[in-house]
Write a sequence for this structure.
């Protein structure tokens, strides 16, 4: 399609953007669905493509229910439409397809897992490319710099539809295979922290002339549910929100809680995952069953309610297997929006929002005694804790407003497209 044809068709319809995600729905990826919904509110037509089969067990938050109508799920290979897409591109563009395979081999030769997964999603990516051509998509946004960005890169190679990518945490830290191949071909690289920006530039020097844009993950700043003053909450109520897996450090939190707790202390754990049984056994072994409650996965609305009745949020993350770790956790943004104090590990992008003794308290990774001391300090001076939480709220208002940041991302995407006279 020529720029003139693109501009002409753009005058009669909204901007069409496809999101590529690894998994849909996924309860913990609230930040992705928020961007999707804000793009819709800004007049875009949307499709969502999941690289894995639809997750029938995870929760789709109420605010994201409209996305069900936009989500698409295809087979990996064994279906007529996927095989048809492969045959189409083999016939129409065999050279381009061959170069993609060669570049995947070159870019991930030292990482056989990424190599095999990239080749595995290739047929499905071609099916997505075929669908996006028929839909006349204007842009593809990969929600992660890992496999979603690989699919978006394949789509651009085969169709010339421009793409952008967001980068968060494990998609950068777990492996850097293919990053130097696909990110320079992206029309926009967005990341969520300055720590990540430096990491990307260290590993993809070709981006030095057009470095990643730092656009924070955001939250909504509604004050429709005023929080109870910390000193009026019954007891000292500590909250954890997130998945229950080793890299999240919930075992460290339970150990620190056992070490520092007072009779009026309570710990509420919201989330689920492979570590749940071990963590429940750990709480029972330490005779904490009466002080710790495991809520399981909860809706976004239930998490907000939990924050409003809590005294403190703890983010005890560590570096896990395969270098999986945090980027800049959305749960901290949400806590500060609710004026909830935060204690967190000094790790990756976390110190960019939890400023020690300014917006909260930091402790060193794996430092159980340091976490216990931070809990004790917060409990002993709730007025100071409230001041830090208010400073956190001010920081979130300035840099983490979801509506503003999604609009910034959308505006950056628009700038990468051919001239459009009727932008929506």
């Amino acid at each position: 399609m020529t720029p003139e044809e693109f501009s002409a068709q753009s005058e009669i319809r909204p901007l069409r953007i496809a999101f590529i995600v690894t998994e849909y729905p996924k309860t913990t990826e609230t930040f992705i669905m928020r961007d999707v919904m804000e793009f819709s509110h800004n007049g875009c037509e949307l499709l969502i493509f999941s690289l894995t089969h639809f997750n029938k067990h995870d929760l789709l938050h109420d605010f994201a229910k409209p996305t069900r109508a936009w989500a698409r799920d295809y087979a990996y290979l064994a279906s007529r439409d996927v095989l048809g897409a492969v045959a189409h591109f083999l016939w129409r563009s065999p050279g381009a397809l061959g170069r993609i395979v060669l570049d995947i081999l070159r870019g991930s030769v030292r990482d056989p897992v990424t190599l095999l997964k990239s080749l595995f999603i290739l047929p499905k990516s071609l099916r997505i490319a075929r669908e996006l051509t028929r839909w006349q998509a204007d842009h593809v946004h990969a929600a992660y710099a890992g496999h979603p960005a690989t699919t978006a890169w394949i789509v651009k190679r085969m169709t010339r539809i421009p793409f952008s990518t967001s980068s968060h945490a494990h998609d950068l830290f777990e492996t850097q295979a293919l990053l130097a191949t696909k990110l320079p071909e992206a029309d926009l690289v967005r990341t969520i922290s300055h720590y990540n920006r430096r990491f990307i530039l260290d590993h993809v020097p070709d981006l030095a002339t057009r470095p990643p844009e730092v656009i924070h993950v955001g939250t909504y700043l509604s004050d429709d549910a005023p929080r109870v003053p910390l000193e009026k909450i019954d007891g000292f109520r500590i909250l954890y929100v997130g998945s229950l897996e080793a890299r999240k450090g919930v075992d460290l939190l339970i150990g620190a809680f056992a070490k520092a707790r007072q009779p009026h202390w309570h710990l509420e754990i919201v989330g689920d995952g492979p570590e749940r049984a071990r963590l429940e056994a750990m709480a029972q072994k330490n005779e904490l069953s009466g002080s710790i409650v495991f809520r399981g996965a909860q809706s976004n609305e239930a998490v907000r309610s939990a924050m409003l009745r809590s005294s403190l949020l703890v983010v005890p993350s560590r570096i896990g297997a395969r270098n999986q770790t945090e980027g800049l956790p959305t749960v901290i943004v949400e806590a500060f929006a609710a004026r909830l104090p935060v204690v967190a590990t000094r790790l990756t992008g976390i110190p960019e929002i939890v400023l020690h003794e300014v917006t909260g308290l930091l402790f060193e990774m794996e430092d159980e005694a340091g976490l216990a001391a931070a809990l004790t300090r917060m409990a002993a001076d709730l007025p100071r804790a409230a001041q830090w939480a208010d400073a956190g709220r001010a920081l979130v208002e300035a840099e983490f407003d979801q509506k503003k940041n999604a609009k910034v991302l959308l505006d950056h995407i628009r700038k990468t497209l051919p001239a459009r006279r009727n932008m929506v």
Observations:
- The mean pLDDT is 93.
- The radius of gyration is 23 Å.
- Residues 337 and 393 are 5 Å apart (CA to CA).
